[in-house]
Design goal:
Blueprint (H helix, E strand, L loop, with lengths): L5 H4 L6 E8 L11 E10 L9 H17 L7 H15 L2 E3 L2 E11 L2 H38 L3 H10 L14 H10 L5 H14 L3 H17 L3 H13 L1
Helix pairs in contact: 2-3, 5-6, 8-9
């Protein structure tokens, strides 16, 4: 009887095998996986010792390669994910690992309807968040503009109210009077007499006590009545009552 040699006990490295398995690899969308059918063509590696669990080793190696690529892909772009996966696997194969040689790995992807619906809702939520953040940035910019430009310069504030409805191409609103606009510019100039007086009065009023402020309102009401501005005097009286 002929003694069996070690060569007789080793699996043939020329024969190829095919393994097919289903998996749910994670996508870049948290908690939303792909549905994958993975087909692996492999053979026993001519390098290194034989692996008695070669089929599992081949499937595991393919699974890890697939998971690594799909972790950066979205379930909303299944076709693109398949293309990226095919390109990445084509660059890596063949692979020798754990006693097996992976010759080819092909993957078919699909996404459950529930998973796709969740992904769409998440995408809409991200979009709304981005819009909200853009609105907040614009609001902060407007407040900064109001604080640094308009509130510090009465003439700029007045001009802003006159021009804020202007067409995007430029120019004042349709039907506006250029002479009136020029008059308003001079009237609201920071160094015009009444603007300086108003600034001084504002500073003065801010330093008054509550009793002194009430006395000032009475003086203003009396002066307006004497000068014939009865309606303005009534408005001052209304302010006094509100206080």
């Amino acid at each position: 009887m002929r003694r069996r040699t070690r060569r007789d006990t080793l699996p043939s490295t020329a024969q190829t095998w095919t393994s097919i398995f289903h998996d749910r690899p994670d996508s870049r969308d948290a908690g939303l996986p792909f549905e994958a059918v993975v087909r692996v063509e492999w053979r026993h590696s001519p390098h290194g010792p034989a692996n008695q669990h070669a089929r599992c080793a081949a499937s595991r190696a393919a699974r890890l390669m697939v998971e690594k690529v799909l972790a950066s892909e979205s379930v909303l772009r299944t076709a693109a994910a398949e293309q990226e996966l095919a390109a990445a696997l084509g660059q890596q194969l063949p692979v020798h690992q754990d006693g097996v040689e992976l010759l080819n790995v092909s993957v078919t992807l699909r996404v459950d309807d529930d998973v796709a619906a969740c992904a769409h809702r998440a995408e809409r939520a991200r979009h709304e968040f981005e819009l909200d953040e853009m609105d907040r940035r614009q609001a902060r910019a407007r407040m900064e503009f109001l604080r640094e430009e308009l509130l510090a310069n009465p003439s700029a504030a007045r001009l802003y109210t006159l021009l804020q409805h202007s067409p995007r191409i430029g120019g004042p609103p349709e039907g506006s009077d250029p002479d009136e606009l020029i008059r308003q510019i001079h009237q609201w100039h920071p160094h015009s007499r009444w603007v300086l007086v108003a600034q001084t009065l504002h500073t003065f009023v801010g330093r008054l006590t509550e009793d002194n402020a009430q006395d000032l309102l009475k003086i203003l009401r009396s002066a307006m009545t004497t000068l014939g501005h009865r309606q303005l005097a009534e408005e001052i009286a209304t302010v006094e009552e509100a206080e």
